[in-house]
Specification:
Helix content: 25-40%
Shape: globular
Number of strands: 4
Largest sheet: 4 strands, parallel
Structural class: alpha/beta
Low-confidence stretches: none
Order of helices and strands: EHEHEHEH
Mean pLDDT: 88
Strand content: 15-25%
Strand order of the largest sheet: 3-2-1-4
Distance between the termini: 19 Å
Number of helices: 4
């Protein structure tokens, strides 16, 4: 199972496009965890309107500010929700998938590489230029320049 985790804070202008990009995925076997980190805008309400009846979407509104990593840690530590064999995709609430086969490519990558534990992908900046994530030698990650994007 793929779990998409999308944390957001005051992302009302963007979170709709994030959700639309998830809904456009050709692979529909996923669960989405939308986590509002105590926003003061209308992003949570927008999410409710967009995904209200879709059982794949789980919407959480933090009652106190937890920040992204605490929210993600709590979610992936809950063994009633996440299993060891699940794939977790982190997509910020102000980001979106670039095309409709992102989840298909993720699944295929993990199918072809059964020992793969973590990976990162490429991304495109708003001006169309490529982002800076790249192949990382995990043994040297702490000692090299910034090569990771997001988690």
């Amino acid at each position: 199972m793929i779990h998409i985790i999308s944390c957001f804070w005051n992302a009302e202008p963007y979170v709709g496009r994030c959700i639309e990009s998830i809904l456009l995925q050709s692979d529909e076997e996923y669960t989405v965890h939308l986590i509002d980190d105590k926003s003061s805008d209308g992003g949570y309400d927008l999410c409710m309107r967009m995904v209200g009846g879709d059982q794949r979407f789980k919407l959480v509104k933090n009652d106190r500010k937890k920040y992204k990593l605490k929210s993600i840690d709590e979610l992936i530590s809950d063994t009633s929700i996440m299993k060891d064999e699940d794939i977790v995709v982190e997509l910020d609430g102000d980001d979106r998938f670039l095309h409709g086969n992102v989840l298909g490519r993720v699944k295929e990558t993990y199918r072809q590489n059964p020992n793969l534990k973590i990976s990162n992908g490429r991304y495109v900046l708003p001006d169309g230029s490529p982002g800076h994530s790249c192949f990382v030698n995990v043994r040297e990650a702490r000692y090299s320049g910034f090569d990771f994007s997001h988690l």
